[in-house]
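Marked as duplicate of an earlier ticket. Keeping the data here for the record.
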Amino acid sequence: MTEQHPAPLRVAVLGANGRMGAEAVKAVEAAADLKLVAALGRADSLDQLASSGAEYVVDLTVPESTEANVRFAVEHGMHAVVGTTGWDAGRISRLEALLAAHPGQGVLIAPNFALGSVLASAFAAKAARYFESVEIIELHHPDKVDAPSGTAIRTAQLIAAERAEADVPRSPDATTTERAGARGCDVDGIRVHSVRLRGLVAHQEVLLGGPGEQLTLRHDSFDRASFMPGVLLGVRNVAAHPGLTVGLDGYLDLGL
């Protein structure tokens, strides 16, 4: 008897001409259980998604178009895996309302697809309740248009939530005079500092300090290929998680 193999998942990549999108196209094409059915650039019509028969959409475009892309995908019965930044509270709220009307669809919005980065952020959040001080330094290439990074914002939010649950006060800081930006920006009470430097790709340090000790959790992505295992993990799991999931950690059994 001939063994029956499940049909490959039909995947479309939006933003296929960008650095991340081009990597995603290669990763999908190399995966035996996935089939690339569309690779759209910025000027291409979303109508090509519907005609391609895509079941899954990977959105790696720009903040100006990502909301419309995901809305189109959900309204046409597709699951979406999103790595584009710019999803503020208003956009998230509108997406949740849309998904409520399409209960079978799943959307993953992941600030970072590097599994090591996701784990580092989760570990940092858990550790942050045990240290008096915590700050974040994120370091990226100078072509990045947003600061701080979506990963740093997500990490700060996770840390702030853990510290609030444990009733840990804000990090001590006696600064009374400063030049603008010297202490970074404030994300939910956590200081975040951004570095933009040629030669970097994507890097983050979480510095945790207590009396007489310091713990540093650092993750480095040296190549955009580091994000692809997370993208593929998202595609393979998003249908099993209807509704909205923010953060790839939502698909990982971290046991924390």
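See parent ticket for discussion. The CA atoms of residues 111 and 151 lie 5 Å apart.
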